Task: inverse folding
């Protein structure tokens, strides 16, 4: 039985060992991928006693092979006879360095995501391509380019955890498409990051992911259409994940260095905490949106805040808050439709829902908003 | 043989049952969506489905305008443009089968639960003729 998750967990440590022995990152990463392929062929017959040692040995051989063949191509003989013994190694620092490298600011977000999933996550190019619905050759090119881009970056350079968190959040938001569940994968990697990076925002990100993920079983109907938060069957929420998310968040908040992921997680925790939609503590949610707005200045946050104000203080207050938000924002029209309906102005709401449906960013939202327009149209007669 | 079935936002003749979707009942909207999903699922079952996507209503024509110049775009003439709402690629045995399926798709239910009789454009892909193996 092949333990694919174990293979993926070992990947960053093995790359780290190779790089520390003097391999360049790009070749080391290739060598480890080849070792993973070999493991997938050999391990079903019997997993080695020391999987990490096995992978290090095989990957190191692959690396030497690659270096030899390259040397031969340049007509330079190079013989490396000594096979260093695979030893136990402290891998925490390597993992963190690998996270930083794969999220390097010189990479585009799409490339950073692909490289992180491969080098830190241990996913194959085929799996990543499937998750992002692009041909494998396209993804292979993207990863090669990314590796060339970071080839000059020294492995020891200190990186920015904020960049790593952004990349992981991007992965999380991709959700579920291929045979790998990217949301679970993002959580697994964020747990790894949290194990080597003690920052409260990393904890905040982990809490946010856990709290969102806990509600996932209730978020879609069997046919794949989305279920709104206030209509979700809360008995489907994963209470263990919620409890863990809240605990991680509280520990982070206790350190009194608020950041945007912690504030977002706080909003998610308040939703998760309500046994029924009507019991949601909207006043506190508005408070956290105020904090978020202060931290980010983001117009999207301002839009969400206006919706929360509509729930906490009534539709009129919500519409007043919405009036200060850029009307060109995606979902502005949908929010406006919702608040107009709440205020009892059904004619305006019907028109706004129809308009929002026409400009919806996803097909699922378009369907949902069309249904809302139809619902109000029917009420109007 | 592969065919592209195109739905249009604008540019195609109006369907027979021409009521804007937001004026349908929620049930009619659901029925329409379910019809489309079932249709795609059935073609997956018969091995005739290749791919399908929905497109956003915006679109821009772009043209090369010479060395060192920015490309020409079509300007704010959206009202007169023919825009594609979505497409489905099917891989079927014959042209007749492609027409049959397009006809079925055009019968998706709309207001009043009646078929909308939407016009669909059917476009064959240019492909190499099948190899004759004798």
Result:
């Amino acid at each position: 039985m092949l333990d694919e998750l174990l293979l993926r967990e070992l990947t960053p440590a093995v790359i780290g060992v190779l790089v520390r022995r003097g391999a360049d990152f790009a070749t080391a990463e290739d060598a480890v991928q080849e070792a993973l392929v070999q493991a997938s062929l050999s391990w079903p017959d019997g997993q080695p006693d020391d999987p990490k040692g096995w992978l290090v040995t095989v990957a190191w051989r692959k690396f030497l092979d690659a270096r030899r063949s390259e040397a031969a191509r340049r007509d330079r003989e190079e013989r490396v006879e000594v096979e260093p013994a695979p030893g136990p190694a402290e891998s925490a620092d390597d993992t963190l360095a690998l996270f930083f490298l794969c999220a390097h600011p010189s990479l585009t977000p799409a490339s950073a995501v692909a490289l992180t999933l491969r080098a830190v996550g241990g996913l194959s190019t085929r799996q990543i391509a499937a998750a992002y619905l692009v041909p494998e050759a396209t993804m292979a090119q993207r990863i090669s380019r990314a590796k060339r881009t970071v080839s000059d970056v020294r492995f020891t350079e200190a990186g920015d955890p904020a960049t790593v968190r952004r990349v992981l959040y991007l992965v999380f938001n991709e959700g579920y498409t291929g045979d790998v569940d990217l949301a679970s994968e993002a959580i697994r990697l964020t747990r790894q990051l949290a194990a080597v990076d003690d920052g409260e925002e990393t904890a905040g990100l982990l809490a946010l992911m856990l709290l969102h993920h806990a509600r996932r079983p209730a978020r879609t109907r069997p046919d794949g259409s989305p279920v709104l938060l206030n209509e979700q069957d809360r008995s489907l929420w994963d209470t263990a994940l919620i409890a863990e998310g809240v605990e991680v968040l509280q520990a982070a908040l206790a350190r009194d260095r608020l950041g945007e992921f912690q504030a977002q997680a706080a909003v998610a925790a308040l939703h998760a905490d309500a046994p029924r939609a009507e019991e949601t503590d909207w006043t506190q949610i508005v408070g956290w949106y105020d904090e978020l707005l202060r931290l980010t200045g983001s117009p999207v946050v301002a839009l969400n805040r206006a919706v929360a104000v509509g729930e906490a203080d009534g539709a009129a207050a919500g519409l007043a808050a919405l009036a200060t938000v850029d009307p060109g924002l995606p979902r502005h029209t949908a929010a406006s439709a919702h608040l107009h309906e709440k205020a009892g102005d059904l004619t305006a709401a019907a028109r706004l829902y129809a308009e929002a449906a026409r400009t919806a960013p996803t097909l699922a939202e378009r369907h949902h908003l069309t249904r809302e327009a139809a619902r109000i149209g029917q009420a109007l007669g | 043989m592969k065919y592209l079935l195109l739905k249009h936002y604008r540019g195609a003749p109006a369907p027979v049952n021409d009521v804007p979707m937001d004026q349908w009942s929620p049930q009619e909207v659901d029925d329409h969506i379910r019809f489309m999903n079932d249709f795609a699922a059935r073609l997956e079952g018969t091995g005739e489905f290749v791919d399908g996507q929905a497109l956003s209503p915006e679109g821009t024509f772009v043209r090369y305008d010479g060395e060192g110049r920015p490309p020409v775009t079509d300007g704010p003439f959206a009202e007169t443009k023919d825009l594609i709402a979505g497409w489905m690629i099917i891989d079927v045995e014959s042209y007749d089968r492609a027409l049959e399926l397009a006809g079925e798709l055009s019968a998706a239910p709309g207001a009043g639960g009646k078929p909308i009789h939407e016009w669909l454009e059917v476009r064959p892909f240019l492909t190499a003729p099948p190899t004759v193996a004798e």
